[in-house]
């Protein structure tokens, strides 16, 4: 197998590691590309190419995360990870860990960890790397990595999100939700929402959004029902999709451009959290992005009552 073939075989794994450390599709792709450049530029023939390349992409991702955390502290409004349509890496033996670590809620929980804790947790708990490999990847001793793993696991277990395990039930509930949303059915929406449901959007100050989180089934259902008719007036449609392993949808304008995404956290047959990503900088990997401000202006014009001319 050539070096290029070795790398391409491992590319899905490298992206999966980088995305979980960074929470960003674009930054993960950049880290994988830089890993390739370093691999192509070295004559090193490691004992394990998988361990070597995983270590390189992990170090690069940790460096990027350290600088990204400063930017995220200055971020306007709530910060969410970039939505991911499909995880390119598959491992039947670790399917549960891979799936659990991909959700928006889990990635937001990972944000509470230090960069090193996050890297160690991802390599150990998600991908099952041994501590010898992890120590090499993060530049710490095995004992230090074990301590980092214990701390990270404690933080994650304390806030670990729980979701509906039956995917069919989850998807059916999501379908009912989006049907009620399209119809502006307040009562239909309310009966699907948990008592402590909250709806939050990430616009990063670069797209129109709700000023604050909307909390409670009555408020969330009312806001959604008022919002739905405006979408139809400007030609926006919602396309049901799995995003970050959770049921959700992609909102597109009349030209098929991406306006936003919405992901649903579901537990106990009710929707617990509705998260929308509206920031155009986080949507470009999903296709051409719509001008949300122009759509808002069009919607505002459409909702104004028409008046006749006086004779």
From TrEMBL:
One Pfam family named in its UniProt record: Sigma70_r4_2
Protein's name in the database: RNA polymerase sigma-70 factor
SUPFAM superfamilies: NTF2-like, Sigma2 domain of RNA polymerase sigma factors, Sigma3 and sigma4 domains of RNA polymerase sigma factors
Family in the record: Belongs to the sigma-70 factor family. ECF subfamily.
Gene3D superfamilies per record: 1.10.1740.10, 3.10.450.50, Winged helix-like DNA-binding domain superfamily/Winged helix DNA-binding domain
Location of the RNA polymerase sigma-70 region domain: 7-69
InterPro entries on file: ECF_Sigma-70_Domain, NTF2-like_dom_sf, RNA_pol_sigma-70_dom, RNA_pol_sigma-70_ECF, RNA_pol_sigma70_r2, RNA_pol_sigma70_r4_t2, RNA_pol_sigma_r2, RNA_pol_sigma_r3/r4-like
Species: Streptomyces coacervatus
Keywords carried by this UniProt record: Sigma factor, Transcription, Transcription regulation
All copies of domain RNA polymerase sigma factor 70 region 4 type, residue ranges: 105-156
Quaternary organization: Interacts transiently with the RNA polymerase catalytic core formed by RpoA, RpoB, RpoC and RpoZ (2 alpha, 1 beta, 1 beta' and 1 omega subunit) to form the RNA polymerase holoenzyme that can initiate transcription.
